[in-house]
Write a structure and sequence with these properties.
335 residues; 8 helices; 14 strands
Length: 335
Amino acid sequence: MAAIPVLKLSLLDGDRNDKDKFIGLLNEAAHDVGFFYLSDHGVAASFLTEVREQTRKFFLLSEEEKLSVSMINSPHFRGYNRAGNELTNGKADWREQFDIGAERKPYNLTDKDPIWMGLHGFNQWPASLPELKNTLLFYNNILTNISLRLLRSLASGLGLPENSFDKIYGDTPNEHIKLIRYPRCKKITETQGVGAHKDSGLLTLILQDENKGLQVKTTDNKWVDVSPIDNTFVVNLGELLELATNGYLKATVHKVLAPAGENDRISVAYFLGASLDSVVPVFRLPAELTSDSSFIETDPNNPLLRDVGLNYMKGRLRSHPDVAKKYYAEWGNFL
């Protein structure tokens, strides 16, 4: 992993040669690195600036206003968390954040319903920043469309029908946006912005500000900076694609360092997950792309589950033990 490649999405709008070039480069990046920059994506720079500005406005709200939409109010794991409230690998992440998901009517759960049905529900929105809702839901739709183009291009590059991953995505995908502020920290060596991890979904698209902090782990166990590039998204693959291709596509370990300088760091992460009621299949790939052994590296303390809803709920319960204790205490053994 000498460098993280930059791919131009606009090539998909060109002729057959341009499309084939993009699909080839995407397949290479997804297999070799698991991370890439996406440029020429068609999203106006002015709109991306607006998303970042509204993110900053949210974190400038008073403590009282932010706590009024605290995640502890939501059994669906939506809302605000102070820095230190979320855990990665059992250690507190030094970031404050605001989580939203797809706006869906919650279920009236019974003891017979699967636990993951509790993830469906409405978001919380700050009353003093009414424009945030429309901006983020519009942003969600734009990035969903981009992500689906990437998924279908990945399928084509693997020699599969381009709609092969649609069965995992389904009619009710688990879309998720996280607004993140990393406060500056004097002891960067002692504090994690976010601990080392793989993302659990299909694809992640990250909108960075001008401050670096995101790092990717290389195959020789070194950390490489994913430095900001104007008007690009940083894209990484999640564990569901790794599972579906028996490890041919890479979900790469990454982390975020707490800022050591004078500036806070702002990031907006979009996650395309799968339908919560889906089960991840293993796709049969062309012989030249496979071997007899699995490429998947799994953490025995955090095993991957092919049942999407259970896998995602496992992550939520571990990351937010306060919400888990309040709404899902009877599932303590699930952790």
